[in-house]
Specification:
five-stranded mixed beta sheet; 15 strands
């Protein structure tokens, strides 16, 4: 037996209430008219208190009413063999559909699965990892049944890994459907890079197991550091060092930010501290700004270089406002922070212009602002069928169901019992009152 609200069972102590009422109820002695007391011999008076349970059947019925009501509130679920067999026969299916799969293909793949789903839900996602997380959460809240996870996607290399599937509970079945065949050749635009010679468009050619990167002819031969949409704010003595860092970054090429994305980079020192503090920083970030900050935080080279630096943005140099810490220095304080002001991404750094952190930070900022194609979405090689078969497994019988996921309980029968007992209690109470009235009338007649 399973209790939906086991805490309510504490109320079973209320069964003592009818018993205490029966025991502690005070009954007044009846008065009888007696002609004289002169013929009675005097005796010592003794006070006697008697607590006797009268009408035990009525007491038992009232206690049973309280017990049945408490059990009904606790919500019992009797797990019989028949009910467990019914749970084992039905299946709850979550279907994760890749965004590249058409709705008709996804419907055919789901309808072809046997047995038919007792309950099903589709999750259309751009990344299978996100779909697995959402589908697993939904299956965890499903009523007792065999649970299955169906993945309908091209299933290209890199779209799934064993670590992704490890988050799926062991009793959840996993099945794969690849509705369409993958192309053997695909060429996509990867993005644009900035160099000292201008902007270069880059393409990727995927031909079976071979991958090649193609640089198209340069579109802009204006060799100037200002080509990057990053406005550097630094003191006069730091400008030469910052220009050298920008030249070094462009010589090694960085991803080119698309039009409309701008950044303002403050090399914080005594000359620029007052200017940085005067900036009005907004708490809201546009999606590309939030993604750029997240990319800089995930940049391993930047984090390692910052961990070897002792400079810190102190209170006198750190601008006021809702800034996000991008990198911490070895001294334990923020070295780089970022925020937003209008349509500009703001970055403030305490790193010395002559340190090795400066070019690494500029490169991380430029790459974070860029927009590149996800090559995993363009992959032409699929995960081998042997690997998919190794990952597949049937749905197991449901384990102990979650209390908040049960779709049935047996409390209604207890409420029926409560109503029946209330009717019996009313009948017994009337019967006891009738018997008491008959006895009182007889005694009165006899004494009179």
């Amino acid at each position: 037996m399973i209790w939906l609200n086991p805490v309510a069972l504490v109320a079973f102590v209320a069964i003592a209430a009818p018993i205490l009422i029966h025991i502690l109820a005070q009954r007044r002695a009846e008065r009888f008219v007696f002609p004289t007391l002169r013929f009675l011999r005097p005796t010592r008076l003794t006070s006697i208190r008697r607590h006797v349970l009268e009408d035990r059947l009525l007491l038992a019925v009232r206690s049973a009413i309280v017990a049945a009501a408490v059990a009904a509130v606790a919500g019992p679920v009797i797990v019989t063999p028949a009910r467990r067999d019914a749970w084992n026969r039905r299946i709850v299916r979550a279907v994760v559909v890749d965004a590249r799969v058409t709705a008709s293909d996804a419907s055919r793949a789901s309808a072809a699965r046997e047995p038919r789903a007792y309950r099903a839900a589709d999750f259309h996602v751009t990344t299978l990892v996100d779909g697995l997380r959402r589908a697993t959460d939904w299956l965890g809240q499903a009523p007792p049944a065999r649970r299955e996870l169906l993945i309908v996607a091209p299933l290209t290399i890199g779209s799934l890994s064993p670590s992704d599937l490890a988050a799926v509970p062991a009793d959840v079945g996993i099945a794969f459907e690849r509705p369409t065949s993958l192309p053997t050749l695909r060429t996509i635009r990867w993005g644009s890079v900035r160099s000292s010679g201008g902007t270069i468009d880059r393409q990727v050619r995927l031909d079976g197991v071979a991958t090649s990167v193609i640089d198209l002819p340069t579109r802009d031969r204006t060799a100037h550091t200002a080509a990057l949409p990053i406005e550097v704010v630094a003191s006069e003595r730091a400008n030469a060092l910052v220009d050298a860092a920008l030249t070094a970054v462009l010589a090694r090429r960085v991803w080119s930010p698309p039009p409309g994305r701008r950044a303002q980079f403050f090399v914080s020192d005594d000359d620029t501290a007052s200017l940085a503090r005067s900036i009005a920083v907004t708490a809201a970030l546009t999606p590309w700004m939030a993604e750029a900050i997240a990319r800089m935080i995930r940049d391993t080279d930047l984090q390692q270089a910052a961990a070897r630096t002792l400079e810190v943005l102190g209170d006198d140099r750190l601008p006021k406002g809702p800034w996000r810490t991008v990198a911490m220095s070895a001294a334990g304080g923020p070295l780089v922070v970022a925020g937003a002001s209008g349509d500009r991404l703001l970055v403030v750094s305490a790193a010395s212009p002559s340190s090795a952190v400066m070019p690494i930070l500029i490169r991380a900022l430029a790459n974070a602002m860029a927009e590149t194609s996800d090559l995993t979405q363009a992959e032409v090689l699929g995960i081998p069928d042997e690997q998919l078969n190794a990952w597949s497994r049937p749905a197991s019988a449901p384990a102990q169901p979650r209390l908040d996921a049960l779709d049935i309980d047996d409390r209604r029968w207890l409420w029926v019992v409560v109503l029946a007992l209330l009717g019996a209690e009313a009948w017994l109470r009337r019967s006891a009152r009738g018997r008491s009235t008959v006895v009182d009338v007889g005694e009165t007649v006899r004494v009179a």
